Amino acid sequence: MMSRLTLEDLGEDIICSNIAIHLSPADILSLALTSHSLFDCLNTNDAFHLLYSKRFGSKPTPLNLVHYDWKRLYNYRSSENTKFFTWGSSSLGRLGYTPSEAPLDHVTKTGIIKNVHTPTNVSAFNGFVINDISAGGFSFHILANDGELYFTGASWKKSEDSMSTPGPLNSRDFALGGAVVPLPYGIHYLPPTPMPWITSRAQHHFEPVLPHYSRSAPNPNLTKPPEDLDWSSLNKDRTKKKITETNFITKLFLPANDKFPSRRIISISSGREHIIALDNYHNILTWDTGCRTNTGVHLLFDGMEDYFISKISAGWNISACYAYRVGIIVWYTRDPVSRESYEDGTTQAKAHYLIIPGTDKGRIIDFHAGCDFVLFIKDNGQIYCFTIEAHNWALSNGEYVPEESFPVIKFNEWLLKHNITSSVKSTFTKISGCYHNFAIFTSDGMVLLGNKESFSDEESNEFPVLIPDLQKRNISHVAMGDYHNFALTDDGELLVWGTESNNCGCLGVGDKDVFLRENLGLDIVSDLGHSKGMKILKPQVVRQPTTNGKWLAVTAAGWQSGGIYVSLD
C-alpha cells in the first residue's frame, strides 16, 4: 500500500512556487507556523522574494533577483521604523505638511512662497508600515499595510474644475452636494454633508455611516523577522491603530459591493490628475477628474470580467493594465457614474478601452504608460511603443482604429551592439518614467534614458542617453518628475540629477546657495539665477535623514519628490 502524501512531502520548490504563490502574505506566514518543516520551506530567500512582491510590488526591483537578500529587504520594509519623507514644492499642501511645520533649515530662504529643499518626515505615517508610494502632478499617494489609501495636499487633481483623460470629458460623476466627501453606502443612508474646504478639513471630516468592509485583525507577525515570530498572536484580536488625517492628509475610500468582501487595495499607480488601484479581487478602481467624492470608481471593462489583471500603470493622461492572454489594455476615458450606481453605493462606470494589437501573444516582460504612449518589453527582450492621442480618442465615440505598435529602433539597435561589443546576452527587463520621459533597464545593469523624441526613426546619436554614473551601479529604480530624476541603488543610496525649477527644492540636496558653494568649479551644478533654482549635471547623493540608514523606495512627479527611509541607528 502506498503511503499517504502530505503537504510537507511536496518540497520547498513546489510549496513556494505552486502553493504560496496563491496565498496572501498573512496566509503564507500562517502556513509557516503550522509545522517546523513548512517553516523551513517558507523561511528561504525565494519565499521572502515572493512575500516582498506580494506586499510591496515590483518597484524597486533589485538587479540580481537570485542572489539578493530578500529577507533583509522584506524586514526593512516591514519595520515600523520606516518613515515617509517628502520635499519640493509646497503648493496646495502637496508635501503633507506646511513649510512652517518643517525644520527651519529645511526651508528655502528666498522668494515669497517657501518650499522644502531637504527630505522632511511626514509624521502622520510614523509607526505604520507603508506598502507603496506614488506621486501625481499635485499630490502623493500612500498605500498603507492594511490596504487603505491616502493622498496628501488639497486634492489629487489641479482644481475642482479640471476635466481631463482618462476621466470623463463630457460630464462628471453624479453626487449629492458635489463636494469631495465619502459617498453614502446605499440609498437608505443619509446623504453626505458637503465638506468645508482645505482650511478646516481636519476639524470637519466626515466618515462613512458604516465601514466599507470588515477586516480581520492585523497580524503583527508580518512586521517581524522569522526568528521573532509570535506564534500565539495569530488569533488574537487587536485594536488597529489608525493613521491620523490632517488638513493635508486625507483617506480615500472603496465603493461598497457585497460581491467583494474584505476588499482592500494591493497596488497603486499615479498619473497627472488621476490615481488607479488594483484590489485583491483584481478589479481596477480610479480617482480622476470626474470624481466628486473621495470614493473611487470601480471600472467595468466590457468582455473582460473573467480575466486576471496582474499589473497596472497610470500614464500622464491615460492608464493601462495587463491581463494574461488578453494583452495590454489601455483606457483613455470612462462613462460618468450614474445616479443609480451612486445611490446603490457600487460607484461603477464603464471604461472606454482598447487592446494593444499583438500583446495577447507571448509574454509581456514589463510595460509603462506615459503621455499618449505605452512602452512595453516583449519576451524577445526588445522594446516596443504604442501611441494614442487620448483626448481625440475620448471624443471620437469609437471611430478611431488603433495603430500597430512599433519597435523603438534606437534602443533595440543599441542593445544589439552592446551585446556584440560586450560579449553578453543582455535583454531589456524593466521600464519606469513620467510624462514624456522614461528609463529602461537591462539584465546586465545598464540604465538607458529617453523621451518621446526617441520614437523617431530618423538617424540620431542623441538617444539613448547613458549617464556613466548610473551604469553597472546596481540601480534598482529610477523615478522622474517634470525636470528632475532619482536613481535608487540596491544598497539604499539615492542619487539625483536634473533641474530644480523656481527654487522648488525638489532635488533634495539642501539649500541652493550652500550646494553651489560646496561644488564650485566641479562641473556638477549650474546656477539658473536668483530664485530660479539650479541644474545638477551629474548624479549626486541625496543626504540621508540619519547617519545610518537606507532609502527603500522613491517617487517623483511635477515639482515634488518623496521616499521611504529606514534608520539603522
UniProtKB/TrEMBL annotation:
One Gene Ontology cellular component: cytoplasm
RCC repeats: from-to residues: 82-146, 436-491
Single GO molecular function: guanyl-nucleotide exchange factor activity
Taxonomy, superkingdom: Eukaryota
InterPro entries: F-box-like_dom_sf, Ran_GTPase-activating, RCC1/BLIP-II, Reg_chr_condens
Signal peptide: none
Matching PANTHER family: F-BOX PROTEIN POF9, REGULATOR OF CHROMOSOME CONDENSATION
Protein name: Piso0_004326 protein
Native organism: Pichia sorbitophila (strain ATCC MYA-4447 / BCRC 22081 / CBS 7064 / NBRC 10061 / NRRL Y-12695) (Hybrid yeast)
Lineage of the species this protein comes from: Eukaryota, Fungi, Dikarya, Ascomycota, Saccharomycotina
Gene (name only): Piso0_004326
